[in-house]
């Protein structure tokens, strides 16, 4: 036998000729009684791929022992080669792996005479896959038509330990795998599903299929793979359908990129256990479902930059209240890439959190407790479908809370109670302790409690250019000695419900004093003192437009240091009760140098002020001057004193007189406004 390969450049074809002759070949002359030379290539055939095909020319006729057989391949879509049977070229075989029409010519010769016959073999159909693979297999492109399946999964296909199912033999491969309804692919621990080369591969079905269950195994796919109509039914032992499900012991993602999920009736990706993969491994995919991913919250870093189309959110499930979610190796939880996330439970973080250019949709009643650093920028955090949620609690020693250009909406629905951390009040942001923190260019809307509540005795949140609106309780609550650091600028805005203070001032005891300069809160917004306030040292200044209000029975004690309250005619400084009615707080007790100019002091004299906390003042009054300094240093002019339950001003015996009634000082006492009279000097 001899094999002749010839390349016809004019036809751009490859011709393979198999020829043979009998041992007693006598040359070209054919006797008159010999059988006529006539080629017979057999009947046309239709077979499935990977079928051993026999071309049979044994029915050909010619001189006995004097016939050469040559098989010529005319059309060869699968690049097959022919093998002679038993060394005789009357019959040859080949194994087509690619669908298409294969055509052949049988040429028989005797001397100078020849005869030819043609035959074609049509290879069509898809290979079936089911059961458990016994060895590693690479799926090639069986049908050149990408709309036709190359393989059909007829029952659940399991890839066991030590076995790899690969697809895409070369860069031209386009593999289509069609799954029958209610079937799927299961990748067990040690098994692997991998794409090699090619593009536009498809896993599809007529109406729907289970999808891919990575049960401790490895998935490593890319190459523009399309997963269509998967997640239509549930794998045995699973409770939720998904196109790709990760479960079992530490399943592995080698690659999951450039995958197009199409027409998934459930989640595109469902993660039920911890996954072994690099961060950002879910990358450059196109998701189809309105809920494309559901996973534990520690999966968030695996999600890189993808296209989500029209979707509701990525569904993340924390471990819940009382359980800390933390990442290994000092990693941070990263929420970003413009993704919307649904946080389905209380999230207590034992790792840093970074939220940048993201939307967090919180389940009703849940909250975020940060026990490490928390940075939020250019984001929105709100309840899912307008639900109310607990808010953000920060309790992280030596760490910072930094929030900028972010909206926090509908928080403050409840207190935190994890078993190891409890907040005392409801707030959108509950600051328990930490390093100096920052809130800037933010918006806090419709808190069911406070906007920002600072519980710390020494740490504070620097709040700048932030808008508060609709908070049920005051927008800010902080200690008296931290007010200036908390509100260092007058660029915050407050739109408060009627009767709700913008800032609640906490005074822990008489030794903790205000300091520096307090800013106006804008319009009629005010600072509310829930207890007695004490200036016991240092200097305290109020700028024009500052409004101070006090709870019933409470007193402002100006004991030592320097106090300056200088307003303007258009922006006076006010001292009033929370109720705003005559005689509804104790008033102001002055024992040091003060300057009151363009102030409105009203509605004091509810009870007698206790001088030094022990001795009652001799009269009820809005102001009790009890400073015994040798030189008159108090300034009191251009003020209005009204609504006292006793006198407007009481000057105790032997104490400095601010000369309030001097016409030159231009003070105003509205007629009959102060119950007992305007000024009394003992």
Which characteristics define this entry?
3 domains; 66 strands; 682 residues; Immunoglobulin-like; disordered N terminus; mainly beta
How is the secondary structure organized here?
Elements: E1 2-8, E2 13-19, E3 45-47, E4 53-56, E5 68-75, E6 83-85, E7 88-94, E8 100-110, E9 113-123, E10 127-132, E11 137-139, E12 151-159, E13 164-167, E14 176-179, E15 184-188, E16 192-195, E17 202-205, E18 211-215, E19 218-221, E20 225-228, E21 242-247, E22 252-257, E23 259-262, E24 267-271, E25 282-283, E26 293-296, E27 314-317, E28 324-325, E29 333-335, E30 340-343, E31 347-349, E32 353-356, E33 359-362, E34 367-370, E35 374-377, E36 380-383, E37 391-396, E38 401-404, E39 407-409, E40 427-434, E41 437-440, E42 443-445, E43 450-454, E44 461-464, E45 467-469, E46 476-479, H1 483-486, E47 493-495, E48 503-506, E49 516-518, E50 527-529, E51 533-535, E52 539-542, E53 547-550, E54 555-558, E55 562-566, E56 573-577, E57 587-590, E58 593-597, E59 599-602, E60 610-611, E61 615-616, E62 621-625, E63 635-637, E64 640-642, E65 647-651, E66 677-681
Parallel strand pairs: 3-9, 10-12, 11-13, 12-14, 12-15, 13-16, 14-17, 15-18, 16-19, 17-20, 18-21, 19-22, 20-23, 21-24, 22-25, 24-26, 26-27, 27-30, 28-31, 29-32, 30-33, 31-34, 32-35, 33-36, 34-37, 35-38, 36-39, 37-40, 38-41, 39-42, 40-43, 41-44, 42-45, 43-46, 45-47, 46-48, 48-50, 49-52, 50-53, 51-54, ...
Antiparallel strand pairs: 1-2, 2-5, 4-7, 5-8, 6-7, 8-9, 60-61
């Amino acid at each position: 036998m001899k094999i002749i390969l010839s390349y016809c450049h004019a036809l751009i074809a490859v011709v393979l000729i198999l020829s043979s002759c009998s041992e007693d070949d006598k040359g070209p002359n054919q006797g008159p009684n010999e059988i006529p030379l006539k080629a017979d290539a057999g009947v046309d055939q239709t077979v499935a791929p990977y079928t051993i095909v026999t071309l049979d020319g044994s029915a050909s006729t010619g001189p006995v022992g004097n016939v050469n057989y040559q098989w010529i391949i005319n059309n060869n879509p699968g690049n097959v080669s022919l093998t002679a049977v038993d060394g005789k070229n009357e019959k040859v075989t080949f194994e087509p792996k690619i669908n298409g029409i294969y055509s052949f010519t049988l040429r028989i010769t005797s001397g100078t005479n020849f005869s030819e016959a043609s035959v074609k073999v049509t290879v069509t159909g898809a290979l079936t896959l089911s059961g458990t693979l016994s060895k590693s297999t690479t799926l090639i492109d069986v049908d050149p038509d990408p709309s036709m399946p190359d393989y059909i999964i007829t029952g659940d296909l399991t890839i066991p330990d030590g076995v790899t199912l690969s697809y895409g033999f070369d860069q031209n491969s386009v593999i289509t795998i069609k799954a029958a309804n209610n079937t799927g692919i299961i990748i067990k621990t040690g098994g692997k599903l991998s794409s090699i080369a090619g593009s536009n591969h498809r896993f599809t079905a007529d109406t729907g299929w289970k999808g891919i269950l990575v049960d401790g195994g490895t998935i490593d796919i890319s190459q523009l793979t399309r997963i269509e109509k998967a997640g239509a039914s549930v794998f045995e032992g699973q409770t939720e359908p998904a196109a790709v499900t990760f479960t079992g012991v530490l399943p592995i993602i080698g690659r999951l990129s450039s995958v197009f999920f199409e027409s998934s009736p459930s989640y595109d990706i469902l993660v039920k256990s911890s996954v072994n993969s690099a961060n950002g491994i879910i990358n450059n995919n196109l998701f189809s479902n309105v809920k494309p991913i559901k996973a534990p919250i520690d999966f968030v870093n695996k999600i890189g930059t993808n296209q989500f189309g029209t979707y509701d959110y990525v569904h993340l499930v924390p471990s819940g209240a009382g359980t800390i979610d933390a990442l290994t190796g000092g990693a941070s939880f990263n929420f970003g890439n413009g993704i919307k996330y649904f946080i389905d439970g209380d999230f207590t973080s034992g790792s840093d959190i970074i939220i940048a250019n993201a939307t967090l949709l919180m389940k009703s009643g849940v909250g975020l407790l940060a026990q490490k650093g928390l940075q939020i920028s250019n984001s929105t955090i709100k309840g899912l479908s307008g639900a109310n949620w607990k808010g953000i609690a920060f309790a992280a020693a030596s760490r910072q809370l930094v929030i900028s250009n972010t909206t926090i909406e509908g928080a403050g629905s409840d207190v935190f109670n994890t078993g190891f951390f409890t907040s005392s009040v409801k707030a959108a942001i509950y600051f328990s302790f930490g390093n100096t923190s920052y809130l800037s260019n933010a918006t806090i809307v419709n808190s069911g409690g406070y906007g920002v509540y600072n519980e710390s005795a020494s740490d504070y949140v620097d709040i700048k250019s932030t808008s508060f609106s609709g908070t049920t309780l005051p927008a800010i609550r902080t200690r008296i000695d931290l007010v200036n650091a908390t509100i260092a600028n007058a660029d915050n805005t407050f739109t408060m419900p009627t009767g709700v203070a913008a800032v609640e001032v906490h005074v822990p005891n008489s030794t903790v004093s205000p300091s520096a300069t307090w800013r106006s809160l804008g319009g009629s917004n005010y600072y509310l003192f829930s207890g007695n306030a004490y200036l016991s040292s240092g200097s305290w200044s109020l700028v024009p437009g500052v409004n101070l209000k006090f709870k019933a029975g409470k007193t402002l004690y100006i004991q030592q240091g320097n106090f300056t309250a200088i307003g303007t005619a258009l922006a006076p400084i006010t001292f009033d009760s929370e109720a705003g009615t005559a005689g509804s707080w104790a008033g102001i007790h002055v024992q040091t140098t003060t300057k009151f100019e363009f102030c409105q002091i009203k509605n004091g004299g509810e009870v007698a002020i206790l001088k030094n906390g022990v001795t009652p003042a001799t009269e009820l009054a809005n102001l009790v001057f009890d400073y015994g300094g040798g030189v008159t240093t108090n300034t009191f002019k251009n003020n209005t004193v009204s609504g006292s339950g006793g006198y407007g001003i009481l000057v105790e015996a032997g104490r400095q007189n601010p000369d309030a009634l001097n016409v030159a000082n231009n003070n105003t006492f509205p007629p009959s406004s102060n119950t007992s009279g305007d000024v009394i000097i003992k």
